[in-house]
Design goal:
Order of helices and strands: HEEHEEEEEEEE
Number of domains: 3
CATH architecture of the largest domain: Beta Barrel
Strand content: 35-45%
Structural class: alpha+beta
Number of strands: 10
Distance between the termini: 61 Å
Length: 190
């Protein structure tokens, strides 16, 4: 009898775990399904007339032409490439390339947001895969920002925006010294 109760308890516990995982999977599918229902390439006009479909890129261009430029707000993706100028702190990172993403929010001249790094031809420096954008500022087309990492290091990015491209250079500091520098190239993806 006791073995039967123990077996029933184990099955009930396992069922709850499976139910939680199943619920999480259903929610993830539902969220992804809703998000993919909207096409990034086209949008239906406010009247809901499917015959009057407008390309989103054309609509965005029209808004910018009308003065509704969103500045640097958005998601910017691209690559960073370290160089070997001077005496790098880690010569093994010469020409290290990473995939980078910046999610930026512009309010006036101030820029905040998040930074993400992913493997390119090497892992991210000190395995810093995320960071927070602090003290970002825009002066016409020039953008400067500080990315703070969890390990206490920080990287300064300075670049120039031209339409949906944002390219420039960076320097990473830790303990008062430059530990890496290089260039980056990104473009707005959203």
């Amino acid at each position: 009898m006791q073995d039967r109760r123990r077996a029933t308890g184990v099955l009930a516990y396992a069922s709850r775990g499976i139910a939680r995982r199943l619920l999480a999977a259903v929610l993830a599918i539902a969220i992804c399904g809703c998000a993919t229902n909207v096409s990034r390439d086209s949008a239906v006009t406010p009247g809901g007339n499917p015959a009057a479909v407008v390309r989103a890129g054309d609509a965005h261009s029209a808004q910018i032409g009308a003065g509704a430029d969103r500045g640097v707000s958005g998601v910017w993706q691209g690559t960073s490439l370290s160089d070997c100028v001077g005496e790098p702190s880690d010569p093994g990172r010469c020409s290290a390339m990473q995939q980078i993403t910046r999610t930026m929010f512009q309010r006036g001249d101030e820029v905040t947001g998040y930074y993400a790094c992913a493997f390119g031809n090497q892992v991210c420096r000190h395995l810093n895969e995320t960071g927070v954008i602090r003290r970002g500022s825009v002066n016409r087309t020039r953008l400067t920002m500080r990315v703070m990492h969890e390990d206490g290091s920080m990287c300064f990015f300075t670049g120039w925006r031209k339409d949906d491209r944002f390219d420039g250079g960076y320097e990473c500091l830790q303990g008062g010294g430059i530990i890496e520098q290089g260039t980056f190239r990104t473009r707005r993806t959203y």
